[in-house]
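Forgive a beginner's question, but might I ask you for the amino acids of a protein and the tokens describing how it folds?
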Amino acid sequence: MKNINDSDLLLNLDPEENLRMENQFLELKLKAEFGAETFASSDLPADIENQFLKNVLEFEKSFSQSRENKVSDILGNPFMKPEAELDDLRIELYLNRVNKMLLEKNIAVDFGGEYSNRVKYKFITEELFEASIFPAGIPGMIMHFSYEEFHPDHAIDLEKKARKFISGWFDKDIEKLLWELADYIILPNGTTLGKEKVSEKLNQAFSRYSHFSEYKHLISDVTFAIDDESGNACVEGVVSYNALMAKNEAIAIQGSFKLYFCREYGWWNIYFFVLPGFEFNEDKPPD
């Protein structure tokens, strides 16, 4: 396959036009050499898009030239004492040491829940060390690994998704709300609504309010049932906020919320919700 060279790019005297031409060239280069398709908003400034495309190109080059290695090999196979041989004080020292070694290789480990240093150290040295990865290809880019990817904590995952959904409501951010929803909302009477219809209903609700203020929420309960990769869950709690109406009339809204989740392909999505200030025009939520 013929490589596209920088000399193939013709420049003119307009710097802005040069950037746009270079971006087109970079897109062609990515597609021709790596089969990569890129999509950017038409509103994205040319200089930002240019840096993005260069980063993608650098990543693709590095990725094509790299091979998988165990994390322990990337670190130089350091000797780390087994967790069972360390007391609590030395566990903390060894954990700090191994985290420093990982960061030096642009690797970081994230823990979504509260875990002891012993659990963290045991996970890194006995599980993560055995994982095979491609090294980070862009200078300064850090590869993040989540403990919960290896040991799913559904309660934490559901709570995070619930908080994102509720914050999307307070921000009047329809895209954020739709992201947490299943492809179809299932109403109590069995009717289903696609995301386009739900988006219309959200827009109708938001059109009544200019903005929300003094909002807060509390999650009181998270329940779930799992069967292999499928499952159902419910997150409950209370919200309170002030809604400013179009005529500057402020009304206080408060009450209980319920978010009903289904799990498919390892992912939790909301298939129905009860939220003070929003109505599906249905009588009651599902049992």
Summary: Residues 6-65 form one domain. The beta strands are 69-70, 107-110, 132-133, 143-146, 184-186, 192-194, 209-227, 230-245, 250-264, 267-274. Confidence is low (pLDDT under 50) at residues 282-287.
